[in-house]
Amino acid sequence: MSSQPLDRTADWTPGEPPARPTIRLRLDLAYDGSGFHGWAAQPGLRTVQGELEQALSRIARIPVQVTVAGRTDTGVHARGQVCHLDLPRPVAATLPGRSDRSPAAALLTRLNGVLPADLVIRAARQVPADFDARFGALWRRYRYRISDAPAVHDPLRTDVLRHRAALDEEAMARASRALLGEHDFLSFCKPRKGASTVRELRELTWERPAPGRADEGLVVATVVADAFCHHMVRSLVGVLLPVGEGRRDEDWPQRVLQARTREAARRNAPGAAPLAPPQGLTLEHVAYPADPDLAAQAERSRTWRGPGAADPSEPGADHIV
């Protein structure tokens, strides 16, 4: 009997071309953004990417880098973040040790054993080489939660914005409808030089969940788009808060959208949308197509958006929120 360890990383069958020298793993993770300076690794700062890659490199005993679905800013949370990484097959084969687990199952257990309490890996699995956490996504869903009355303030929740004034969520819902569809969201984005700010906003709803439902009593926005440019979600919330307070008419968000400007507002003239605080924002879910459609979706996502747009494959082209 051979003394060689069982290769649990095989994703090919005899008669097919040789397997790739690496395997690709998908990680689904959640984190409380309160203690992180955002997702992206930064020297001297505690970030989600920094903590995760440090743990991965410690376990794999080689440098490991991850690609994420969307980079979140300082203070933004996630329940459904997704990233992928590639590991050499010989390295992946060592992860289970003497157990009969798959490399993905072993990595899940080992990562959660060394990561800090505010960062959790919820699932890990091997995926096809065509899977791309960033460019393969069909859409992303965020929720923004607001507490607008002392009766619903919960000091134990770090994912809720404590707001100073009562909000009319029905007025905010009506005002949101004009923003749906594909538009140039320049007034709602912090653009990178040469990058497009055209996005398709598929859902922007507001509700106050009834007693017995999750988030009861809070004002909750659900935001879905194919992708988001930098600060877009927080700017959408920021332009709607004064509508909910009664300080702006319901056509105000549409006027800001049509202004297509980064200039500050002057008197009653619309300008760039104000930015809501980060702590109420959570990335809830990222959707992907079935495996046979992964490559085509990634290719579509890499296409340019609008005239003169920069190639979104460049670093920083799709900083999400």
Task: Based on the model shown, name its key terms.
321 residues, alpha+beta, 10-stranded mixed β-sheet, 22% strand, globular, disordered C terminus
The largest sheet is: 10 strands, mixed
* Principal-axis shape: globular
How much beta, percentage-wise?
15-25%
| Individual helix count | 7
Please, what is the average pLDDT?
A: 90
Q: What low-confidence regions span 5 or more consecutive residues with pLDDT below 50?
A: 1-6, 12-16, 305-319
Protein topology:
Layout: E1 22-31, H1 48-60, E2 67-68, E3 77-88, H2 89-94, H3 103-114, E4 119-127, E5 139-147, E6 161-162, H4 169-176, E7 181-184, E8 198-207, E9 219-225, H5 232-245, H6 252-259, E10 281-287, H7 294-301
Parallel strand pairs: 3-10, 5-6
Antiparallel strand pairs: 1-3, 1-4, 2-3, 5-9, 5-10, 7-8, 8-9
Helix pairs in contact: 1-3, 4-5
Describe this structure in words.
With 321 residues, the chain is of the alpha+beta class. Strands 1, 2, 3, 4, 5, 6, 7, 8, 9 and 10 form a ten-stranded mixed sheet that branches. It has seven helices and ten strands. The protein has helices spanning 48-60, 89-94, 103-114, 169-176, 232-245, 252-259, 294-301, and strands at 22-31, 67-68, 77-88, 119-127, 139-147, 161-162, 181-184, 198-207, 219-225, 281-287.
